[in-house]
Amino acid sequence: MRFGVLGPTEVSGVPVRGAGLSGLLVLLALEAGRVVSVDRLVEALYGPSGTVNALQSQVSRLRGLVGVPLELGPAGYRLVVDPLEVDAHLFTHAVAAARRASSPGERARLLREALGLWRGPALADVLTLPFAEAEAAALEELRLSAVEDRVEADLLTGCAPLAELVSELGELVRRQPLRERLRGQLMLALARSGRRAEALEVFEEARKTLAEELGADPSPELAALHLSLLRDEPPSAVASPAASAGPLAVGRLPAASVSAEALGAASALRPRAPRPRLTSFVGRDHELRLVGRLLGRGRLLTLAGPGGAGKTRLAVEAVEAAHGLGEVCFVELAPLGPGSDVALAVLTALGLPYGHSEPPGPLSAARQDPSASMSLPRGVPPVDALVTALGDHRVTLVLDNCEHLVEAAALLVDRILAECQRVRVLATSREPLNIDGEQVLPIAPLPQPPHGLDLEQAREHPAVRLLADRAAAVRHGFTVTGDNLEPVLRICRALDGLPLAIELAAARLRALTPAEVAARLDDRFRLLTGGSRTALPRHRTLRAVVAWSWDLLDPAERTLAARLSVFVSGTTAEAAERVCGGDLDLLSALVDKSIVQADGGRFGMLETVRAFCAERLAESGEEQRVRQAHAEHYARMAASAESQLRGPDQLRRLAELAAEHDNLRAALRWAIDTGRAEMALRLTADLWMYWWLRGLRHEGALLSAEVLDLVGPEPPEGLAEDHIMCALQMVTTGRPLEEARERLDNAERLARGMAEPPRHPLIAMVRPYPAIASGDYTLLLPALLAATTASDPWSRAFARLLLGYLRLGAGEVEAGERELRLALDTFRMAGDRWGVGQAMLQLSELSGWRGEHKEAIAMAEEALEVIAPFGATEDTALLMSRRGAELARAGDLAAAEVELERAACMARHLPGSEAEAIATYGLAELARLGGDPARATELYMAALAGCEAHWLGAHETRGRVLIGLGRVEGDGARLREAYDLLVDVLDLPGASGAVEAMAELVLREGPAARAAFLLGAAVSLRGAALTDGPDVVRTAGEARRVLGDAAFERSYQRGCSTPRDQVADLLPF
């Protein structure tokens, strides 16, 4: 396939219509072969207000384009094509190949072929989308550069007709009046055509335009060409104005008095190149392009970020890849001590030693032998000598590691930029220079690998690629495999994606396995030592990297940094001030110095920096005081939000708590570990609803169990209600029945002893829970009916939701539907989105029973939209499985498989949930109905293994899986086991599926009348008939064919009228 973005978007010559669809395809094509996260796609296509639903709509349309190989994984979407199938990538590759051509003629030919790929402006039909302008500008810059290279090759060969070149260059200059290289090429083409006067006019136009637009003079190269034309030199002798070739003459003098001999020395710059790179450059493609664009836009760019983030390497690669920077001089400032003269270091890097006691030799000698040893006299201040030496040279200074000399570096750069108009500066620092004209590009660590990556995706992730590359260098044959994938990912995540830390960890793989390294990262500073002997001392150990930044802080900054280490995953400025003291200026200073990272109103530390600062906090003697302040702050936050999680402010308060999830957990962890029972109990009770809304029920249950173990059966005075809430949370997932029964019996006892009306509405639900735990479902109905009269609307709605589940499970379809619709209405009035989603999930299934698949799918989709803002992975996966099952019933098996695969993938790493088992069961059903019994059996067994450990809800899933296995194996005993299990948990709709499967099995052996009876008995159990279930339709059709309509109806109706409690005795197995 061929993907075109250099012009209107097209696939293999076929136009793609619609900006949204084109934009999605273009963005994926520009990252061909690489995973693009959902968040990045939404932001790029729709901006900050975009939604995932809008993206999914375009993804569905894109899948409809014939042959587009779009792949979905946990980390996002990927266009699975060779990048060279995308014209933009092919163009970049072709231009690079052309520039390596051995002759100008060959170079011109290859560049023409490359430029022929363009069909119009890049990204022409998507330029209104947020991401497109910058990408299109980068491609256009490359195109113009290629055009300039092709023109230069044409001028060198002399094969192209000059008249055509003049016409082409005239139009290019009209469109790009600030590109001096095109101006110079036009001047040369005019001169060679005998139109020297016109060539001189082009220069005068350039001088005027540059002065008006940029306040700058023409470049030395263009001025030199102008001078040659004025001297009436033969056109063939006039050099082409390409990129700078060799030393340039000094063009202007500063006010300081500098001798002519010194100027002679300065005219021969011999700038120091960066050290040769001996390792690969990984994972900074976007930043590399961005640095190039920013250097072209301004004259000062600072790469600012924490130590070890890879700023130096990025700077080196960027100046190597960029065009039009002139000569590049690399200045290492790290070895300099405090008070060192930065200008002197730059002079030395430029090859101009300062301080020779005698004047240097004659000016002519310097020009004849630029490599001769020259130096500048001591009488001139180094900064004046430097400014003089730079003069009108086109030079890019790379000032590496400015942070410890930031004031001196800032003053020097300000002077250089003011007096040397052709000089650019690229600085790397842990804090910005903070001078006028500075562009600051924050350099963060590499992104951390997301959860859910498969082996192939993980190997492509930048942090993993870096670790694998460096590890292979020290341990021959090392590669990331299925066996070591998990510890490799743990290493990259634990080290924040920090390149230097990853490289130090890779060095440890010489002797240790990835699992051994990952297990030792709790003591990362002791483990990660022994970096390269040629590296700077502060880059040889992880501790030294952070200590270098710490030593640059003043005492007040160090105190605040140490205290901030109690926050996990960041915090707000308000919380930092309340817990740590200090003011906003101090916090801002820590951000500037890359100790703290600022992101969207939140402030946090890299985990490595936080660990270092936590050591300093422990040494300070105030650790427990600060941690208590932290815990008390988040306990107050949870208490103030608890009641508002059930109403119209639900989303706002949930978002606040979700942003502080790690801090809330850390506060509770500290309260448990230090034995603060009252705080732990209150905080757990206040987080109950948060855990449910976020789909974190398993986490809440485990922490609740720890709190109850700490507190014991008798709560502190006034905290009985909190104790009950803790018990309710504990028994919701993954707890043994005996333990659940004991905890709930105690909760019911405490509820009976409460004198005051409960603060938590769920206290009214205590009585139903012991009935669930004991398995005695006959106790549930009166308890839930009593709860429907509660004064709190949310409690009434929740009781009706449970009552609807119960009635449907008992085969009372009409009554169950009525309760669910009442629950839905009440939840909507209360503004509770979670309740709305849960009610719609069950109502969707009811519509599916009736064959109303369009309505059922619409309900599932609306429920997904309602709960999407919660970020509840478990609930989202369950609703996706519901939608997938309904798509299968509607006959769209391909769409059903995609949806169920996504649900299974999403649920794969959820602890204590049967969501993956439910999705896997759905995939097994598709395999069975699709005629692949071996695959179906494999999937059924996987689903069975996924629902063995959870007592609440898992029995229903287990029963349905057993039915599927019974169908595939033709095993009546399996079907009877499923029936008994589902009846025991009052899931009669599930049990009816077992009876329908028995009917199919019976029919294989001949007695069609009994099969018809069993189909009717299944209707009796469920309380409704499945109008178009494929298994039922097939079995009923075959039985009707054998018996005839009348005989079939008699047997079927006899089954329908059989009382539910008699069905078990009439089953064949």
From TrEMBL:
InterPro entries, sorted: BTAD, HTH_77, OmpR/PhoB-type_DNA-bd, P-loop_NTPase, Sig_transdc_resp-reg_C-effctor, TPR-like_helical_dom_sf, WH-like_DNA-bd_sf
Gene3D superfamilies the record matches: P-loop containing nucleotide triphosphate hydrolases (3.40.50.300), Tetratricopeptide repeat domain (1.25.40.10), Winged helix-like DNA-binding domain superfamily/Winged helix DNA-binding domain (1.10.10.10)
Keyword tRNA-binding (UniProt): no
Short name of any one Pfam family annotated for the protein: HTH_77
Species of the source: Nonomuraea dietziae
Keywords: DNA-binding
Family: Belongs to the AfsR/DnrI/RedD regulatory family.
The UniProt record lists the keyword Coiled coil: no
Molecular function GO terms recorded: DNA binding
Source organism phylogeny: Bacteria, Bacillati, Actinomycetota, Actinomycetes, Streptosporangiales
Domain Bacterial transcriptional activator: 86-230
Domain OmpR/PhoB-type: residue ranges: 13-79
Annotated SMART domains: BTAD, Trans_reg_C
Source organism superkingdom: Bacteria
Name used for this protein in its record: Putative ATPase/DNA-binding SARP family transcriptional activator
A GO biological-process term: phosphorelay signal transduction system
